[in-house]
Specification:
single chain; about 110 residues; alpha+beta; Arc Repressor Mutant, subunit A; globular
Length: about 110
């Protein structure tokens, strides 16, 4: 697997997992990822919005324009049923990869 593919898969997992909590806009998604990871993970705009658009094209998320609490217009994204299925597969893949890396670090 190429590094770019792995990073794209990781970003997809983070976005889908965040949207599992409920609808959110791009800035809110990025803020959630950074907050929950205690600043370890940061999703930059240059990666975030292309990924959200790709996930929407693939029908893993659905987007709709709404007004935020601060009165600004923003596109809110929601996890679709297809996205929830993809999230389950991505979590399973991540857990298997993580398990393999932990074994390698322990026994290498």
């Amino acid at each position: 697997m190429k590094r770019a593919d792995h990073l794209q898969g990781t970003l997809e997992l983070l976005l889908l997992k965040t949207l599992e909590r409920g609808p959110n806009h791009g800035f809110g998604i990025a803020l959630h990822v950074e907050t929950v990871s205690d600043g370890l993970l940061r999703v930059e705009e240059g990666s975030l919005y292309p990924a959200l658009h790709r996930l929407e094209r693939e029908k893993l998320i659905a987007g709709a324009w709404r007004i935020t609490e601060s009165g600004r217009k923003a596109r809110f994204y929601t996890l679709t049923a297809r996205g929830a299925t993809q999230l389950g597969e991505a979590e399973s893949d991540w857990n298997a990869l993580s398990k393999g890396v932990k074994r390698l670090l322990r026994f290498a």
